[in-house]
Amino acid sequence: MLRGELVGLRARHEADVPILDTELLDDVEVRARAGRRPWRPASPGSQESHYRVMESTDQMAPFSVVELATDTLAGAATLWGIDGHHRSAHIGVAMLPSFRGKGLSTDTLRVLCHYGFTVLGLHRIQIETVADNYPMIKAAERAGFTKEAVLREAGWVLGQFAGEAILGILVDEWAAA
Amino acid sequence: MKGGLQGELVGLRARHEADVAILVTEMHDDVATDARGSRRPWRPLSPASKESFTRVQEPNDTFAPFSIVELATDTLAGEASLWEIDSHNRSAHVGIGLRPDFRGKGLSTDTLRVLCHYGFIVLGLHRLQVDTLSDNYPMLKAAERVGFTREGMTRGSAWVMGEFADDVILGMLAHEWSGQRHAGA
């Protein structure tokens, strides 16, 4: 397990899946804002579930986030699009509703940066999020990310086009922080 | 050129078998240029390689590959594509590569206009995006001339021949495109 101050990141366990599916995947608004694809109904245990147990690959490392103080599942985090040539990756984080607003996202981002920069040897890590996802943008900036772009009307989100913000952090910035 | 998509200087048509060897020799085999335009490291490819981005392939729901023809001479001038076509978010990315002898003649600008027509009018997309290195001034100039807006720069996002370089992202929305058309631009 990778440990931060507030959270630990470990592999996905079977027992995590129904909780993540119910609290994150079944929330149409949350999924529409988090993903590039339209929400679709998924049965319990569906292999289509974003949160099913899957092995890490060269391109993707899926984690479950555990709150250390309570030893409880708090959310999901992924390093995806890991690119061994450009030495870059993307980050996705989703906290369960009752674990939001406690600073766990910021700590999760720091642990993912440690994994990407120190364990994997990456050069750059990037976050994409809906431009009005202020909690995520604030957490990313607190973890040392810089806002680099806003792609105008880049995603269809429940009836309208929304902007997409891109934030990036380089290994030198991480090492200096 | 008959059929296909026509601009003022260029036409866009499907890839023909006769295009492939020219594109592999003049574009892929130029390591420095290929490294600037591709997301993957350069690798040696035979002209007949099925891996080459220049090969003849069928279009699908997410990818539309074209050959560019200079209309004045009816000659192959390069390749262009709409890639990552996303029918949910109604967006796509634009890619262009010209043969060395066809650069600096305004063909990129015209090719971008034809791709915009295809994306916005034929496919009904809402947004098109250009991703290019921050020192690719000809492409940046062509995109801005066509009406793309510079939206940001991802720092150190591309490994290019020994160093990390920045990518610039430019975007255009359907109403910006149709507004220009109605203004007679």
Keywords for this structure?
heterodimer; A: 177 residues; alpha+beta; 8-stranded mixed beta sheet; 5 helices; 8 strands; 27% helix; globular; B: 185 residues
Descriptive report:
The complex is a heterodimer of chains A (177) and B (185). With 177 residues, chain A is an alpha+beta fold. Chain A has helices at 16-25, 28-34, 104-119, 134-142, 171-176, and strands at residues 2-3, 7-10, 61-67, 72-83, 88-95, 124-130, 146-157, 160-170. Chain A has an eight-stranded mixed sheet with strand order 1-2-3-4-5-6-8-7, sandwiched between helices. In chain A, a hairpin with a 4-residue loop joins strand 3 (61-67) and strand 4 (72-83). The longest helix of chain A has 16 residues, at 104-119. The two termini of chain B are 25 Å apart. Chain B is α+β, with helices and mostly antiparallel strands and 185 residues long. The mean pLDDT of chain B is 92. Chain B is globular. The relative contact order of chain B is 0.15. In chain B, helix 3 crosses helix 4 (137-146). At the A-B interface, strand 7 and strand 8 of A face strand 7 and strand 8 of B.
Tell me the helix content of chain B.
Answer: 25-40%
* Main sheet summary of chain B: 8 strands, mixed
Strand order of the largest sheet of chain A: 1-2-3-4-5-6-8-7
Unreliable spans of chain A are: none
Biggest sheet of chain A, in brief?
Answer: 8 strands, mixed
Helix content of chain A: 25-40%
What is the strand content of chain A? 35-45%
Largest interface by Cβ-Cβ < 8 Å: A-B, 25 and 25 residues
Give the DSSP E fraction of chain B (strand runs of 2 or more residues). Answer: 25-35%
